[in-house]
Write a structure and sequence with these properties.
The structure holds two protein chains of two kinds. By secondary structure, chain A is α/β, with parallel strands linked by helices. Chain A is 41% helix and 23% strand. Chain A has a single domain, classed as 3-Layer(aba) Sandwich (Rossmann fold). In chain A, the strands form two sheets. Chain A has a six-stranded mixed beta sheet, sandwiched between helices. Chain A has a four-stranded antiparallel beta sheet with strand order 2-1-4-5. The longest helix of chain A is centred in the middle third of the chain and has 18 residues. Chain A is globular and about 60 Å long. Chain B is elongated. Chain B has one domain: MetI-like fold (Orthogonal Bundle). The N terminus of chain B is likely disordered. Chain B is an all-alpha fold. In chain B, 72% of the residues lie in helices and 0% in strands. Classes of the chains: A alpha/beta, B mainly alpha.
C-alpha cells in the first residue's frame, strides 16, 4: 500500500439502521491533494469524520480498515488513536463560525495542540502561532492572538483555522468543505491560501467538496462518491479528460462553465442515476445492509 | 465587530445596580446585625407590644418599624433574619449548583449511559411536589440549619441538571468541540476547557435564581415552623406570626414580606443582568 492515508472497504452505518458508507476505498498519497466530491448527503464528510474519530454518536464503523502511515487506526485503543491523530492530522472545518470556542481567546486555541500533544513550551508555541498567523496574511497577529472569535470576520476566522491546522506540521489535513460557509469573494482567497500552504508545507490533504471547479484547481487526484459508495477513483488529468463512470461524466457535464453559463446548467440524467442506484443496491445485496 | 474590552467597561445597567445594591445592603445587615440592630431581637416587653412604625402616632423611639405582639423590635428581627436567609442562599445555592451542574454537564457531554441514568433520575425526582418533599425531608432530618440546606440541595439539583444538560448537549455539537477532540484532547479535558466556559453564563444565572429560591424555601419552612429553632428570628417565622395579628398590627407581617420579596426579586434580576453581560456574543 502506498500513500499516507489508505481507507480500505470502510463501511459505516446508522446504529440499528441502514448503511451510510458502503465499502469505501481511497488513498491519499503523502504530500498530495486528494479531492472527495459528491452530492450533499453522499457521505463525504462522514469519511473525514470516520478518519478523525469524530463520527456522530448515531453512526458506527461496521467494517473496513483506516491505515494512517502504515498503522490501522481501528486496531488502536481509543486513547492511542486520539493521540496518534492529534500528532499527525488536523482538520479545517466547514463552518469557521462554530469552529472556534467563543469564550476563549484566539492565541491559546492555536497553541493548545502544540503544548498539549507535542509538548512545546508556551513561549515557543506562541512564537510559532505568530509566525503562522503572519503566513496566512493576518494583519497585526499579536493583537489578533488576544481577541475573541466574535470580534473577527468569517474569512479571518477561516484563516486562523488554517493557521491552526498547519501549526503542528501535520502529515495529513482533512479540509471539510472549507469554503462553503464563506462569501464567494473570500472563497477564492481562502482556496488559494490552502493550496499555497499545502504546497509550502508538503502536507497531504483530503479535500472534501461538492464543487468540481474547486477540485480541478487544487487537487492531484479525486474520488467521486454517490450514496456512500465510491463510483470512481481517478488521477486529476485522466478524470477531466476521460471520466470512466457515467455518473462522473454526467457530473462533469453538469458543471457550469464561463463560456456557456446558461446552456451547461443541466441535471444529472435519470438513466445515470438509475445506473448508480442499481450499483448501490447490488452492493447492499451482496454485503447485506450492514 | 465589537470589542470585548468595551463590553466590560460598558456602564452597569440599572437592573444590576438596584439588585446588586439591595443584596449588598442585606449582606451587610447579615454580617453586622449585632452592631447595627437597634434592639435585642429576642428581648420581649409586653408593655411595648404592637407598637406601630415610627411615622405613625403612638410609636416608640428606637423601634423604627414597630414591634410585634410580644414587644420584639421588627427591624432588629429582620436584620437578624437576614443572617439565616443569606447563609441559606449562599451555601444551599452553591451546593445545589455544584452538584446539579456537574451532573448536567456529564449527562450532556458524555451522553450514553451516564445521561440515561441521570436523566431518568431527574424525571423521577421532578415528579415529587417540592414543598411537600421539603417538609417530608425536614421531618426525617430534623430541624436545624444543616437540615434546611440539605433539603434544598436534595430538592433543587434537578433544575441545574436539566438546564445544563441541554446547554452542554448543544455546545457538544459545535465544531470546536470536534476540533479539540481531533487535537487529541482527552474527553474529560474537553469537557472542562471547551464546554464549561460556554455554559458558565447559564450556570451563573441559574445560581442566582437558585439563591432566591433557597430564600423562599427557607421562608416556607420557617412559616410552617420547620426551620431552625423558634427563638432565632426568621423572615418566614415573622410572616407566620404577623399573619395572626395582621388586623391589629399590619407592620409585623408587611415588613418581612417586603424584605423577602425584594430579596428574591433581586437575586433573579442579578442573574439575568449578569447573563446579559457575560454571555459570549454571537449566540
Amino acid at each position: 500500500m502506498s500513500g499516507y492515508l489508505n481507507i480500505r472497504n470502510l463501511s459505516v452505518s446508522l446504529r440499528g439502521g441502514g448503511p451510510i458508507l458502503r465499502s469505501v476505498t481511497l488513498d491519499v498519497a503523502a504530500g498530495q491533494v486528494h479531492g472527495l466530491v459528491g452530492e450533499s448527503g453522499a457521505g463525504k464528510s462522514m469519511i473525514g469524520k470516520a478518519v478523525l474519530g469524530t463520527l456522530p454518536r448515531a453512526l458506527q464503523i461496521t467494517a473496513g480498515e483506516i491505515w494512517l502511515d502504515g498503522q490501522d487506526l481501528l486496531k488502536l485503543s481509543p486513547g492511542q488513536r486520539r493521540h496518534r491523530i492529534g500528532a499527525t492530522t488536523a482538520l479545517i472545518p466547514q463552518d469557521p463560525l462554530t469552529a472556534l470556542n467563543p469564550s476563549r481567546r484566539i492565541g491559546p486555541q492555536i497553541t493548545r495542540r502544540l503544548v498539549d500533544i507535542l509538548g512545546w513550551t508556551k513561549a515557543a508555541a506562541e512564537a510559532r502561532a505568530l509566525e503562522l498567523l503572519a503566513e496566512v496574511d493576518i494583519p497585526d497577529p499579536r493583537r489578533v492572538m488576544r481577541t475573541y472569535p466574535h470580534e473577527l470576520s468569517g474569512g479571518m476566522r477561516q484563516r486562523i483555522l488554517i493557521a491552526s491546522a498547519f501549526a503542528a506540521e501535520p502529515k495529513l489535513i482533512i479540509a471539510d468543505e472549507p469554503t462553503t460557509a464563506l462569501d464567494v469573494t473570500v472563497q477564492k482567497q481562502i482556496l488559494r491560501l490552502i493550496a499555497e500552504m499545502q504546497a509550502r508545507h508538503g502536507t497531504a490533504l483530503l479535500f472534501v467538496t461538492h464543487d468540481l471547479g474547486v477540485v480541478s484547481k487544487v487537487c492531484d487526484s479525486l474520488s467521486v462518491l454517490y450514496a456512500g459508495k465510491i463510483v470512481e477513483n481517478a488521477r486529476m488529468r485522466r478524470f477531466f479528460m476521460h471520466p470512466i463512470h457515467p455518473y462522473s461524466a454526467a457530473l462533469l457535464a453538469a458543471t457550469p462553465t464561463y463560456t456557456n453559463p446558461q446552456g451547461s446548467l443541466m441535471p444529472v440524467p435519470e438513466s445515470v442515476i438509475e445506473t448508480v442506484e442499481q450499483e448501490v443496491t447490488a452492493h447492499d445485496r451482496r454485503w447485506g445492509r450492514r | 465587530m465589537r470589542d470585548a474590552r468595551s463590553e466590560l467597561t460598558r456602564p452597569i445597567g440599572v437592573r444590576l445596580w438596584l439588585s446588586g445594591g439591595w443584596l449588598m445592603l442585606l449582606a451587610c445587615a447579615a454580617i453586622f446585625a449585632p452592631w447595627i440592630a437597634p434592639q435585642d431581637p429576642l428581648a420581649q416587653d409586653l408593655f411595648l407590644g404592637r407598637m406601630p412604625p415610627f411615622w405613625e402616632n403612638g410609636s416608640e423611639a428606637g423601634f423604627w418599624l414597630g414591634t410585634d405582639s410580644l414587644g420584639r423590635d421588627v427591624l432588629s428581627r429582620i436584620l437578624y433574619g437576614a443572617r439565616l436567609a443569606m447563609i441559606v442562599a449562599l451555601v444551599a445555592g452553591t451546593l445545589t449548583c455544584l452538584i446539579g451542574a456537574s451532573l448536567g454537564l456529564i449527562a450532556g457531554f458524555y451522553r450514553g449511559w451516564p445521561d440515561r441514568i441521570i436523566s431518568r433520575f431527574v424525571d423521577i425526582w421532578m415528579a415529587f411536589p417540592p414543598v411537600l418533599f421539603a417538609i417530608l425531608l425536614i421531618a426525617v432530618l430534623g430541624t436545624g440549619l444543616t437540615s434546611i440546606i440539605i433539603a434544598i440541595v436534595i430538592i433543587d439539583w434537578t433544575r441545574f441538571a436539566r438546564v445544563i444538560r441541554a446547554e452542554a448537549l448543544s455546545q457538544s455539537a459545535m465544531d470546536y468541540v470536534a476540533s479539540a477532540q481531533v487535537a487529541g484532547r482527552a474527553r474529560f479535558g474537553t469537557m472542562l476547557t471547551e464546554i464549561l466556559p460556554n455554559v458558565l453564563p447559564t450556570i451563573v444565572a441559574l445560581l442566582t435564581l437558585e439563591m432566591g429560591i433557597a430564600v423562599i424555601v427557607e421562608a416556607i419552612l420557617s412559616f410552617v415552623n420547620l426551620s431552625i429553632s423558634t427563638d432565632s428570628p426568621t423572615w418566614g417565622g415573622m410572616i407566620a406570626e404577623g399573619r395572626i395579628s395582621v388586623h391589629q398590627a399590619w407592620w409585623v407581617l408587611v415588613f418581612p414580606l417586603i424584605t423577602l420579596f425584594l430579596t428574591v426579586l433581586s437575586f433573579s434580576q442579578l442573574g439575568e443582568g449578569l447573563k446579559d453581560r457575560f454571555d459570549p456574543v454571537l449566540r
